[in-house]
Design brief:
Largest sheet: none
Number of helices: 3
Radius of gyration: 13 Å
Strand content: under 5%
Distance between the termini: 46 Å
Number of strands: 0
Length: 71
């Protein structure tokens, strides 16, 4: 369905961008979601939840980095 297609398109983008910015937990979760979308029987809902749970810490990390860069 559409959700699976969207997830398949967005997960690699999230993994790439998060890796570039040092958000490694988010990158790992996005890569696991990407792989899980290709595997029948994978708990895709849990994998998506894992990505969602890493978003807030990743954003907090980026805010701290931005604040440090501003001095």
């Amino acid at each position: 369905g559409g959700d699976r297609e969207t997830g398949g398109a967005v997960a690699p983008q999230i993994a790439g961008v998060s890796g570039q910015y040092g958000c490694l937990a988010l990158r790992r979760a996005a890569r696991a979601l990407e792989a899980g979308l290709q595997q029948p029987g994978a708990d895709q809902a849990q994998l998506a939840e894992d990505v969602a749970c890493t978003l807030t810490p990743a954003l907090d990390f980026l805010k701290r980095c931005a604040a440090a860069a501003r001095g």
